[in-house]
Structures are given as C-alpha cells and as structure tokens.
Design goal:
mainly beta; 19-stranded mixed β-sheet; 5-stranded parallel β-sheet; 21% strand; elongated; binds 2-acetamido-2-deoxy-beta-D-glucopyranose; LRR_N_plant-typ; signal; glycoprotein; transmembrane helix; leucine-rich repeat
Length: 498
Amino acid sequence: MIMRLFIILAFSTLTVLLGAGFSDEESKFYSNDDRQALLALKSQVSENKRGALASWNHSIPLCKWKGVTCGHKHKRVTGLDLGGLKLDGIISPSIGNLSFLRSLNLEDNFFSGTIPEEVGMLFRLQQLNMSYNTLEGVIPTSLYNCSRLVVLDLTLNRLGHRLPLEIGSLSNLKLLLLSKNNISGKFPISIGNLTSLSTLSVLDNHIEGKVPDTIGKLTHLIKLQISANNLSGVFPSVIYNLSSLESLAIAANRFSGNLRPDFGYKLTKLEKLHLGGNSFSGDVPKTISNISALTHLELSQNLFTGNIPVSFGALHNLQYLGLAQNSLGNNLVGDLEFLSALVNCTHLQMLDVGYNRLGGELPIHVANLSNELANIYLGGNLITGSIPHNIENLINLQSLGLENNMLTGRIPTSLAKISGLISLYLNSNRMSGEIPSDIGNMTRLEYLNLFNNSFQGSIPPSLGNCRFLLYLRMGSNRLTVVYLKSSCNVSLLSTCTC
Ligand SMILES: *[C@@H]1O[C@H](CO)[C@@H](O)[C@H](O)[C@H]1NC(C)=O
Ligand SMILES: *[C@@H]1O[C@H](CO)[C@@H](O)[C@H](O)[C@H]1NC(C)=O
Ligand SMILES: *[C@@H]1O[C@H](CO)[C@@H](O)[C@H](O)[C@H]1NC(C)=O
Ligand SMILES: *[C@@H]1O[C@H](CO)[C@@H](O)[C@H](O)[C@H]1NC(C)=O
Ligand SMILES: *[C@@H]1O[C@H](CO)[C@@H](O)[C@H](O)[C@H]1NC(C)=O
Ligand SMILES: *[C@@H]1O[C@H](CO)[C@@H](O)[C@H](O)[C@H]1NC(C)=O
Ligand SMILES: *[C@@H]1O[C@H](CO)[C@@H](O)[C@H](O)[C@H]1NC(C)=O
Ligand SMILES: *[C@@H]1O[C@H](CO)[C@@H](O)[C@H](O)[C@H]1NC(C)=O
Ligand SMILES: *[C@@H]1O[C@H](CO)[C@@H](O)[C@H](O)[C@H]1NC(C)=O
Ligand SMILES: *[C@@H]1O[C@H](CO)[C@@H](O)[C@H](O)[C@H]1NC(C)=O
Ligand SMILES: *[C@@H]1O[C@H](CO)[C@@H](O)[C@H](O)[C@H]1NC(C)=O
Ligand SMILES: *[C@@H]1O[C@H](CO)[C@@H](O)[C@H](O)[C@H]1NC(C)=O
C-alpha cells in the first residue's frame, strides 16, 4: 500500500516536472490543429456514413474520439484507426496536418479518389494501412519521404503506374503489401535498398520485365509474393540466395527455363512454393523433397518433364501437391510409384497430378493415402487398372477425378461409403459393369460424370436421393435409358445427358 502510494506520488511529481499534465482545456488548445484536421477529414466522409464518427464533436475530448489515440506527453494524435467502419468519400488532404501521427489505419472502407500527397508530410508515420478501399491514381511520391515507415499496406485498391526509384528510401520498411492493384512497369532496382523487408507482396498487378538482381540483397525476406503479374526471364538466380524464405509465390507469370537441381538445398525453409502457370521446363528437382517444412507445393501448368520424384514421400508436412498440366511421366509402369510413397504424407489434403503423361496401373496404395485427403485429381493421363475396393479409406474425399484415362473394372460399391463426395469424374475410361445403386448414398453429390465408358444395366433410381446434383452425364455407355428427372427430386439439375 505504501509502495503504491509512493509510486503514485513519484509519478505525479514527474508529470508536473515535465509539464505533461494538461487539463482538458489545455489539451484542447494543444491539439487544435489535430482537431481541425480530423473534422476536415470527417467532412469529406459522405453524410450518410458520418454517423460512425458521431463522437467526433465538440462535447467530447479529442483523445476520446472513436479511433483516435493520443500520445501521453503532448496529447497529440499519434494513431488513427478507422478500419472497417464502411466509410466512403475521399481522404481529405488535411490528414497531412496530423503531424504526430505514427499509425494510420483506414483499411476496409470505401474511400475513393487518390491518396493525398499531404500524407508525405507525416514524417513520424510507421504504419500505414489503406488496404481494401477503392483508391486510384498513383501512390504519391511524397509518401516515400516517410522514411520511418515499417508497414505499408495498400492491398486491394486501384492504384496504378509504376513503382518509382524513390521507393528505395523506405529503408525501415518490413512489410510492403501492394497486391491486387493496377501497378505496371518494371520493378525499380532500388527495391534492393529495402533491406529490412520481411514481406514483399505485389500479387495480381501488371508488373513486367525481369526481377532485378538487387532483390538478392533482401536477406531478411520471408515472403516473396509476386504471382499473377507479367514477369519474365528464367527463375531469378538471386532468389536461391534468399535462404530465409518461407513463402515463394511467383505463379502465373511468364517465367521460363529450368530449376536448379540443388533447389531444395538452397531454399530450405520454404513452407509454400507456388510456381504454377509459367513455362518452367526440365526436371522437377528431387531436392525439393529435402524441404522438410513444405506444406504447399504448386507447380501446375508448366512444361516440366521427367518423373514425379518418389522422394516426395519424405515431405511429411505436405498438404497440397499440385503438378497438373505438365508433361510428367513417360507412359511407363513406374510413373505412379510416387503415389505409393506419398502414404507417409499424412496431412495431404489435395493431390492434383492430372493432365500429364503418367502411365502404369493405379496402385492399390492410392487408398492408403492420408485420410485427410479431400481432392484427388488423376484425370487426363494414361492410367490403367481399376479403382481399388478399399477406396473407402479415403473417407474425407470430396472430389475424385479419374477421367480421361484407360481405367477398367467396376465402380466399387464401397465408394458409396464416402458420403461427403461432391464430385466424381470417371468419364472417358473403359469401365464397365452396373452402376451400384448404393451410389445414391452419396447424398452430397453435385457433379457425376460417367460419360463414355461401357457401363451397362439401368441408371439406379436411388440417384434421386442426390438432392444436390447439378451436373449428370451418363451418355455413351450401354445403359438402359430411363427418364431420370421423373425419379429425381432434382430441381437443381442443370446438365443432364443420360
Ligand atoms: C493544415 O495546415 C495548414 C498549414 O498549417 C493550414 O493552412 C490548413 O488550414 C490546415 N488544414 C486543416 C484542415 O487543418
Ligand atoms: C457527441 O458524441 C457523443 C458520443 O457519440 C454523443 O452522445 C453526443 O450526442 C454528441 N454530441 C453532439 C453535439 O453531437
Ligand atoms: C491492414 O488491414 C487489413 C484489413 O483489415 C488487414 O487484413 C491487414 O492485416 C492489415 N495489414 C497489416 C500489415 O497489419
Ligand atoms: C519530400 O522530400 C523531397 C526532398 O527529398 C522534398 O522536395 C519534398 O517537398 C518532400 N515532400 C513532402 C510532401 O514532404
Ligand atoms: C539505394 O542505395 C544505393 C546504395 O546503397 C544508394 O546509392 C541510392 O541512393 C539508394 N536509392 C534510394 C532511392 O534510396
Ligand atoms: C489500369 O492501368 C491501365 C494503364 O496502365 C489503365 O488503362 C486501366 O484503366 C487501369 N485499370 C483500372 C481498373 O484502374
Ligand atoms: C505482358 O507483356 C508483354 C510484353 O512484354 C505484352 O505483350 C503483354 O500484353 C503483357 N500481358 C499482360 C497481360 O499485361
Ligand atoms: C549468392 O550467394 C553466393 C554464395 O553465398 C554468392 O557468391 C553470390 O554472389 C550471391 N549472389 C547474389 C546475386 O547475391
Ligand atoms: C535429401 O532427401 C533425400 C531423400 O529423402 C535423402 O536421401 C538425402 O539424404 C537428403 N539430403 C540431405 C542433404 O538432407
Ligand atoms: C513410410 O514411413 C515408414 C516409417 O517411417 C517407413 O518405414 C516407410 O518406408 C515409409 N514408406 C514410404 C513409401 O516412404
Ligand atoms: C493399406 O490399407 C489396408 C486397409 O485398407 C491395410 O490392410 C494395408 O495394410 C495398408 N497398407 C499399407 C502399406 O499401409
Ligand atoms: C447404402 O445405404 C443402404 C441403406 O441405408 C445400406 O444398406 C448400404 O449398405 C449402403 N451402402 C454402402 C456402400 O454404404
């Protein structure tokens, strides 16, 4: 008790000494500029949305206004957080008068117009988040004067034009998040000056040209996300030096060339690797299997050849494996050996190796894959054999795509035990036998394609239980034609060729 009293006394003495103990009257005086600036900001918010800022009035002390944080010493506005208030209108240039501002959050509103140049006057600014608005025009060059910025998040706006050289002056920046805008032109070489960066995210813009070598200087980079732009050239060799990377996303660009065989010995900390939708060719590096933390591996839609490494089975944390639409496999017996090896990837949820040149028999081990698997896509290959009876082990399966192969045999009745199955594609194979009436047990089924096989008998009326069926194709078989819609309680069914 005595101790506490002492502290209180000591504290109040200190505040008096420092002259920081303003009365309400005084603080009103000291923050007059801030008050004016905020009221000007409010006046630019459209009238019907201003209600969210009702507390911004003269009967409430400034520092208690919604979203406003003041410094302890000077009672100046140091933080403004208007995130998610659904405000619209424009951002008033008066914001530049909040000269003590360190943190500005306008995220998730409907602000339009441009980012006022006056933001560049906020030289104390460390955090700026204007993501999820509809801001357009150029990112004002003055903003690059805010050299104390640590976070710059402008994700999802309509900001355009190229990134200028001046961006290199933000030497304290850790997070640069500009995804989902309309940024064009090349990366400025000065991007290499941002040596504190841990995340560079410019997904889904129109940036073109090569990735500058200076990016190799960003040795603290943990996330490099530049997918969905128009970048070209070989896999930038400097990226192999960014050994701290945990997430590398360069998908959906125009990159080409081979990956180095020692890939996995260089980027050893990767958890997510997205290279899909480029023109990479050559072998998939076997050393990727040494990246033990890898959870997401997406290499689809490239020109990779050779085998899918059996060593991928060593990736025990793998959840997502996407290798579709390449030229993997050689229509040989061993092509699917990797499938058996993947049984040790007990967290696998998504396996997509469709539309390659994989041959050989569907291994019975496919049913021993992780029971967390939700999606298996093996369609568009040269796979023989039949669906194993123990397929029911994959009890959490939602999509099974085996179409456009050379599969034979029946649909195993046990398949119907996978009650959560939503999509089943078996079209264009050589499967035969009757369609088990148990198929109607899969009541969640939305897409069922059995087209172009040799199924016989009749279409089971139990299909009428599949109340969510949207797409049903059964033609080009030897089925007895029945008018299914009458037995179906299916108002949803949009495509039905039986
Ligand atoms: C901002 O500051 C400038 C210069 O001090 C002043 O002329 C202007 O009126 C201020 N604007 C607002 C809205 O406070
Ligand atoms: C000022 O804001 C407070 C809190 O939102 C509100 O209760 C009060 O009615 C407002 N006063 C005026 C004059 O708008
Ligand atoms: C910025 O705001 C968005 C939307 O609220 C949020 O998701 C994001 O994490 C924020 N950015 C940073 C760097 O905190
Ligand atoms: C930004 O800095 C440049 C010089 O580096 C200066 O000319 C300009 O006036 C500054 N802009 C703002 C808005 O402070
Ligand atoms: C980037 O760094 C180089 C050398 O470190 C320096 O000469 C240059 O002025 C910097 N550029 C910017 C825009 O900060
Ligand atoms: C994106 O920028 C281009 C010019 O680079 C422009 O023609 C286009 O209208 C912009 N799109 C949007 C949505 O702002
Ligand atoms: C990508 O860049 C090339 C030229 O380098 C251009 O022809 C093409 O239109 C660009 N594509 C997009 C989607 O911007
Ligand atoms: C990459 O690292 C190697 C070895 O550490 C070094 O020799 C090389 O100069 C670096 N390359 C770049 C572009 O930084
Ligand atoms: C890389 O992984 C392979 C196959 O899992 C293993 O045989 C090899 O020893 C590993 N190499 C290193 C350097 O860890
Ligand atoms: C799976 O792991 C077990 C135990 O670690 C091991 O004995 C087996 O060889 C592995 N199987 C495959 C296909 O890698
Ligand atoms: C595969 O699963 C079956 C049960 O369906 C089991 O009998 C068999 O031992 C499993 N095989 C492996 C290699 O785990
Ligand atoms: C399908 O449901 C019927 C009736 O509940 C049941 O007798 C049958 O065993 C089920 N089939 C499968 C494969 O689970």
